[in-house]
Specification:
heterodimer; A: alpha/beta; 6-stranded mixed sheet; 3-stranded antiparallel sheet; 8 helices; B: about 270 residues; mainly alpha; about 85% helix; globular; binds adenosine-5'-triphosphate; binds magnesium ion
Chain lengths: ~240, ~270
Amino acid sequence: MALLTLNDVCMGYEHMLAVEHVTAVIDAGDYVAIVGENGSGKSTLIKGIAGLMGLRSGSIKLGDGLKQGEIGYLPQQTRAQRDFPASVMEVVLSGCLKGSGSSLFFSKQDKQRAQHEMQRLGILPLKNHCYGELSGGQQQRVLLARALCATEKLLLLDEPMTGLDPAATAELYDQIRMLNRERKVAVLMVSHDVGGALRDATKVLCMHQTMAFFGTVQDFYSSHYSDELTGGDHHHV
Amino acid sequence: MFDTLIELFSYPFMQRALIVGILVSLSAALLGVSLVLKRYSLIGDGLSHVGFAAMCIALALNLAPMIVSIPLVVVAAFLLLRLNDSSHIKGDAAIALISSTALALGVIVASLRQGMNVDVSSYMFGSLLAVDTNDMYMSVALSLLVLALFVVFYHRIFAVTFDEQFAKATGTNVNLYNMLIALLTAITIVIGMRMMGTLLISSLIIFPALTAMRVLRSFKGVVLCAAALSMFCMIAGLVCSSLMSIPAGASVVMVNAIMFGLFSLISMIRKA
Ligand SMILES: Nc1ncnc2c1ncn2[C@@H]1O[C@H](COP(=O)(O)OP(=O)(O)OP(=O)(O)O)[C@@H](O)[C@H]1O
Ligand SMILES: [Mg+2]
């Protein structure tokens, strides 16, 4: 069974629809780039998959042993938590909480997991620093490490490259690709950097309130949607 | 001086005040860390005014204050939480609306009944004499609940406070924790209000968290420090109040303010 089966999903806010008729099947190990203009419903769709917002109609089915609480979610720019007193370790560890039930202590595995993810993202030296005092790019990595702690199977990344310098962006792309290829974590990544995101992606979902396109990267480039999003100057197959 | 103190605290009413004070200040500080960090600082203020109105109504109807105020304040707490979540009215504006309406209602009810002025002023500024054995039992139960919540669900409280959206995505019942915190805050305010006064009780929620945040940079540190600070300020405040015969509520708030100044100074020195 597929990891995620979206069937005619419609979502909205109060009196408006933001996402209409999205039907897509996402398998374990897929790397899906979600593209589209501002306000086209990308973040809304991600929230629906993460279980943060109800659906107006349609359904989202989780398969392959994936449970609702086991999705790693990286929100689009969280509220400025500038003065939040939390160490990096505390933030990353909070990704290890799963499902309900008490959480008196984190297990040794949880702590090792957190260390491991921090190491992978190069933020282990920042372990005891205050989250609020890090740079935007460092904060982004901390949140990614937290998302990684929360899942084995599915990562939802909403514009993860915001605020990263070019070197860090390239590095993060590499790390996400590695997670996807080596650990078979399925990735759904919202990005405005169409060229960059599509280099590694296996599938593309193009939003325009409705689902304008869903398919392989090759098919996407030969469709007219890619021209609209990249200004038509992209020649890459 | 010690003799006077020992003599003072040998009075049962002072012992009760001390016990209730310490337990309420501990609960308020723990809940306060979460409330302040979620930008709900003013909730305490709004709820205390609702509590004031409830007390006036109880007095007018000749009912026990707790029986009227606990349900009313709890309902108000849930209402404020809902308003905070909806995008229509800004949270701080909603709290201001509710709190001034409640205050007005309380004053009207109080003045319709003659001869209540003395009681009303004791509600506003609090009184140690108002603390009875009932309050004592309730504060013991309350603080046990709050402590249990923080010990057993500490990591979830952190997750919900730091990032509700992520906590929800990883399967934490965010609404449940928000409701629990609102409920316990409401009860804390009702129990503490008679001793600290309507106008000053909310400072027990805000001050310790803000003071601890001046110096400490981890959540655990802030929680522990706020709890310790709050109890210390309560004891010091009660002692000062009885030595200098000033109202207890004001004295406790003043000690809290001094500690805040001290911690600010420390943080400034550390940065320099
Ligand atoms: N909290 C909200 N309340 C009401 N409407 C909202 C809310 N969030 C988004 N919308 C609306 O829903 C639509 C889709 O928004 P969404 O955030 O999903 O867009 P997006 O594709 O992620 O855009 P961007 O590229 O700017 O992040 C927009 O028209 C927006 O105005
Ligand atoms: Mg978005």
